[in-house]
Amino acid sequence: MKNTKNKVTTFEEHLEKEYGKKGVRKRDKYEQGYEAFKLGVMIQELRKEKNLTQEQLADKCGTTKNYISRIENDASDIRLSTLMRIVQDGFGGKLNFVLKFN
Prior knowledge:
The chain has helices at 11-19, 25-49, 54-61, 65-72, 80-90.
């Protein structure tokens, strides 16, 4: 049996191998999808923390249970106006943005 050692790589090295360096279209698309995924998870965690069902959250912010589900499961792009209603009306919070430029 051949003895081979596995080389441990960082996550950044893995991303570069699979999607290219930052600024490459494939990598940018991956990172955009990842940000949408994180947003869906954050909404789901906040909803559960507030003990709300998807239907209750939808009622509070004027949308549908199906749309909340699609956002939480990363199956739908979310409009800024809807995100603001979810945060403000649904959770009683305030939405702030940070923009980063390389």
